[in-house]
Design goal:
Elements lengths: L8 H13 L14 H16 L3 E4 L5 E5 L8 E7 L12 H16 L7 E7 L12 H6 L5 H4 L9 H7 L15 E9 L4 H5 L3 E7 L1 E10 L16 H21 L5 E11 L9 E10 L2 H21 L3 E11 L2 E2 L2 H13 L4 E6 L4 H5 L5 E6 L15 H20 L5
Parallel strand pairs: 3-4, 3-5, 5-13, 6-12
Antiparallel strand pairs: 1-2, 2-4, 6-11, 6-13, 7-9, 7-10, 8-9
Helix pairs in contact: 1-3, 1-12, 3-12, 8-9, 10-12
This protein binds (2S)-amino(hydroxy)ethanoic acid and manganese (II) ion (MN) (2 copies).
């Protein structure tokens, strides 16, 4: 591992750790999108962006953007960044490492007196993680013009719509069309790998070739509320029992698909809401959310057809009814730009760092951005591949190596003959 990198490891690390302090104290490390805590994190970042000399704004899709103008207006924007929201009880690096690394690249360019032809924008994309509103990657969808009126109308259990929440974050749902960008020459995102490939092979950076497609399906199971003490077992219609059968069936189906030669596949039910949720009432309804991930569209389609065709029957056998199957979001596989991948590989090797190409099983804002601009990602190792948990960890030098590769890549993209 090289130590004389073109970025400041300590300064980058201090910002990551400062953001880690901005957490719900009861569940470190939690900074859920659309919460007061999230806004505290945003305020910290906005200050750091401004201190780096960036012109700070929030776009209509709620993205925090810091801009460093280039010398050749019209060449387009090199956009770099990730997200600062977390899952509940998440880690200190997922998303944050990428936002702070991007900020560090901007600071390092300034310090080294390096002007770019392209405008450079550092971005903290709003609400990348799945959330209670039912739509993830809110900000990056907005950048691509794919935050639909239906999505803006999604409502969290408390009754607030995505549009209302977006306004609270400084966005503007009425002007959402203006968030759509057509001036991005390249989008780069640094992220911890959230897997073990780099760590086990002792490789400094991963160059992401593709990002899995993610399908989120909401299931509504209906039974009938009854007295838990007096209703005989054979006469019950218990929605939670129907839901339990659905959960087990989804796991079995996912294992079968993952075992075939159908590319990477995984499915999880991580949300379950039961009503009335009382110890002495037979559950009347259960709401579940399936998160399915596939490397191949065709495998995803097979899973979706199985869900439609088989799950209602399985739930009915448990004497409850699957009354609704709705697609909450459906993002297909995103391919990175081969030219940008080659630039990242060269950048790593010019710094004496090892790299390898790999696929991403996690979703990222970069997947959205790939719909409107050439995109690539830089992965950095993390301990035992742990992520979406408090144990998530990366060493300062591992992140700064990735940031250095991003720095070098930005310079190369800026100097490359246009049409990047
Ligand atoms: O859910 C995901 O893959 C990511 O961590 N947002
Ligand atoms: Mn995540
Ligand atoms: Mn992430």
């Amino acid at each position: 591992m090289r130590t004389n990198l073109p970025v400041n490891t300590q300064r980058l690390w201090d910002d990551v750790m400062a953001l880690a302090e901005i957490t719900d104290p009861a569940a470190p490390y939690t900074r859920r999108a659309f919460t007061a805590r999230f806004l505290e994190g945003r305020a910290f970042l906005a200050k750091r962006f401004a201190a780096a000399g960036l012109a700070v704004r929030i776009d209509p899709a709620g993205n925090l953007i810091g801009r460093r103008p280039g010398r050749a207006p019209g060449k387009g924007v090199i956009m770099i960044g990730s997200h600062s929201d977390t899952v509940p009880g998440g880690g200190r690096f997922d998303g944050v490492a990428g936002v702070v690394a991007a900020l560090e690249v901007a600071r390092a360019l300034d310090e080294q007196g390096l002007a770019l032809d392209h405008d450079l924008e550092v971005v903290d994309c709003l609400a990348e993680e799945a959330n209670v509103y039912g739509v993830s990657c809110v900000g990056s969808r907005g950048l691509t013009g794919r935050l639909t009126p239906e999505m803006l109308a999604y409502t969290e259990p408390g009754g607030e719509t995505v549009a209302q929440a977006l306004s609270r974050m400084g966005g503007d749902p009425v002007r959402i069309a203006e968030a759509r960008r057509d001036d991005i020459a390249a989008f780069l995102e640094l992220h911890i790998e959230q897997g073990r490939v780099l760590e086990s092979a002792a490789i400094d950076v991963g160059v992401v070739r593709s990002i899995v497609g993610i399908l989120r399906i909401e299931l509504l199971v209906e039974g009938r509320a009854d007295h838990a003490g007096t209703t005989p077992m054979p006469l019950r219609s218990d929605a939670l029992v129907g839901a339990a059968e659905a959960i087990l069936a989804v796991r079995k189906q996912a294992e079968a698909l993952a075992g075939e030669d159908a590319g990477y596949f995984a499915a999880t039910i991580g949300v379950i809401e039961v009503a009335p949720n009382a110890a002495n009432v037979v559950p009347a309804t259960a709401r579940l959310v399936i998160d399915a991930r596939a490397e191949r569209r065709e495998t995803m389609q097979r899973f979706a057809s199985w869900t439609e065709g088989e799950l209602p029957r399985i739930v009915a056998q448990a004497r409850s009814r699957l009354t609704q199957i709705s697609i909450l979001s459906d993002s297909s596989l995103a391919a990175a730009d081969p030219r940008l991948c080659a630039i990242i590989t060269e950048a790593a090797s010019s710094l004496g760092l090892s790299s390898r190409e790999m696929a991403s099983g996690a979703g990222h804002d970069a997947a959205m951005l790939s719909r409107i601009a050439p995109m690539a990602m830089i992965f950095t190792p993390c301990r035992e591949g742990r992520s979406h948990c408090a144990e998530e960890w990366a060493e300062p030098e591992q992140i700064s190596a990735g940031a250095a590769v991003m720095f070098e890549s930005v310079l190369r993209i800026d100097r490359a003959p246009t049409e990047a």
